[in-house]
Specification:
122 residues; 42% helix; globular
């Protein structure tokens, strides 16, 4: 199973990627929305998407992913420090299957959440 992590915070991206690899996932890492859209063409099984990024933000990236027939069916989990009900609703309305507030989840809890969304790798 392949997961694309779109996260501009290099430390957090490395931490999440390392945890995912340790859990048996293949990981692709993009550091902004534009790079993430390009890497999504590799058809990951799931995309973890940050919202606050320079240039193209996560909402714009999510809209572009869902508008492209080649990537529209890839499940997207938003992982952000924005946790207001308005942002959560906006992300889910735009097509995200779940929303994680990063400060409320440890890396192990993020892995557990991904496992629950992607059966098959444990």
């Amino acid at each position: 199973m392949k997961i694309l992590v779109i996260e501009d915070d290099t430390f957090l991206s490395s931490l999440i990627s390392s945890e995912l690899q340790g859990a048996g996932y293949e990981v692709l890492a993009a550091h902004d929305g534009t790079q993430g859209l390009e890497m999504a063409k590799e058809k990951p099984d799931l995309i973890m998407l940050d919202l606050v990024m320079p240039g193209m933000d996560g909402f714009e990236t999510l809209a572009a992913l869902k508008a492209d027939p080649a990537t529209a069916s890839i499940p997207v989990v938003v992982a952000s420090n924005l946790g207001e009900a308005e942002e959560i609703k906006r992300a889910k309305d735009a097509g995200a299957i779940d929303f994680l507030v990063k400060v409320h989840f440890t890396p192990a809890e993020i892995i557990a959440k991904i496992r629950s969304l992607l059966p098959g790798v444990h």
